[in-house]
Design goal:
By secondary structure, the chain is α/β, with parallel strands linked by helices. Helices cover about 25% and strands about 20% of the residues. It has 2 domains: about 5-195, Spore Coat Polysaccharide Biosynthesis Protein SpsA, Chain A (Alpha-Beta Complex), CATH 3.90.550; about 255-285, no CATH class. It contains 6 helices and 13 strands. Strands 1, 2, 3, 4, 5, 6, 7, 8, 11, 12 and 13 form an 11-stranded mixed beta sheet that branches. Strands 9-10 form a two-stranded antiparallel sheet. The longest helix is centred in the last third of the chain and has 29 residues, at about 255-285. Keywords: Transferase.
Amino acid sequence: MRRTITAHTMVKNEDRFIWFAIMSVIDYVDKMIIFDTGSTDNTVAIIQSIIGSGYEDKIIFEEKGDVDRTRLGVLRQEMLEKTETDYFMILDGDEIWWKDSIEELIAIANSAEEPLLVAQHYINCAKDIFHYRKPGRDVFAFLDKNEASTIRLYSTKIPGIHCGGYYGIEGFFDGDNNEVQCGKYQISWQKEKYFHTSYIQRSSNQNKDLKAFSRMSKLFMSYDYKFPKNYKFPEVFYETYPALVCSPFKRNIFSLRTFGYFLLDTLRLRLIINLFRKNQYQEGK
């Protein structure tokens, strides 16, 4: 049975990845509600270009202006109240889906099981798009304790479902004010992951990037590994995109972030060398 989905997207200064995030799912969902909360880079222009390319009937876009942390939860509730589909999907401006991932999510939603919640793991970039954190570093105990995970698909059939809290601790609750992910409702898991760019620069303008909530705290998040040269990034990264959109693979070698990581990498290398020398010294005694 085919079930309908509305994607909910809240953005501020996301012009590096918002085109890729939207285009990775737009042809798989029935509706998309996008609220901009005060972008000053090219985010709004990019969203408008997507709408004008044939998605006028699918995307509801509203500019809400600058908002505080408490207002974000109110806006998520407004999105929910505008939703008329079987499910809603949370799609942040830093979340890009592989085709296999979004197709699996749709298949689960359309399954005979008719799940109320669908959770997934994700790959968390840090430093830049070519580096990532090991899976166990970003975990939520109520889901998978061993790997970064979250819930991105919610059924509107959960009795009284609504958004509560404010940015950073907002969540979805049922009519009895129980968090929906805390055991009362069964969670279905998908196998495929999505690509998460939360810890890297999300606006083409460094100063504007840091004006969005929590970006400063993510400025120098450490990474663990580098992707292999033959790594297959989400397919949408290789598609033709408008001139307004930056290449996802472009590096800003003159940014504060790049300079900071250069210092951190130098320090890391020195620590490794010193540890190696210490071990060699101990073995030679």
